[in-house]
Specification:
Elements (H helix, E strand, L loop, with lengths): L1 H4 L13 H13 L7 H9 L4 H12 L15 H23 L17 H11 L6
Helix pairs in contact: 2-3, 2-4
Length: about 140
């Protein structure tokens, strides 16, 4: 009966068991008006019944639907990484040198916006203010 229902191009209520079925279900969901923010959930739902081998095929399709990248010869790019590492090393040396020359921070914060608090004056005024019940 499932094969009869799959003839309907809008039918998506099945669990794919092969990568081909998973791709087909995802495309059907897109044609049915899948919102962009629901694409990750839809891909996960399409992959829930796949075996590890089929999951690998489906993941390869997700990464690049138009071509097979397994036989592409890649060129290793070291120049950018090495340049970034050298810049990082130079910056690390510069910052470490600055840290050695940094003077100690003051213990008290002298902020001109904060009013000066004189504890002796406060202690003298507290008895004159009285407790809340004697006011």
């Amino acid at each position: 009966m499932l094969s009869v229902r799959k003839t309907d191009p809008r039918f998506v209520n099945y669990v794919p068991t092969t990568a081909v079925e998973a791709v087909e279900r995802y495309v059907r969901c897109r044609r049915n008006g899948l919102k962009a923010y629901l694409v990750p959930e839809c891909l996960i739902d399409c992959a829930r019944g796949l075996s590890p081998v089929e999951m690998g095929k489906f993941e390869a399709w997700i990464v690049n639907p138009d071509a097979d990248l397994s036989k592409v010869k890649l060129v290793e790019q070291k120049a950018i990484r090495e340049a970034n590492d050298s810049v990082f090393a130079e910056n690390a040396k510069r910052v470490e040198a600055l840290l050695d020359d940094t003077p100690p921070l003051p213990m008290e914060i002298d902020d001109e916006k904060m009013p000066a608090i004189d504890l002796l004056t406060i202690r003298e005024e507290l008895p004159r203010m009285g407790t809340p019940s004697t006011r």
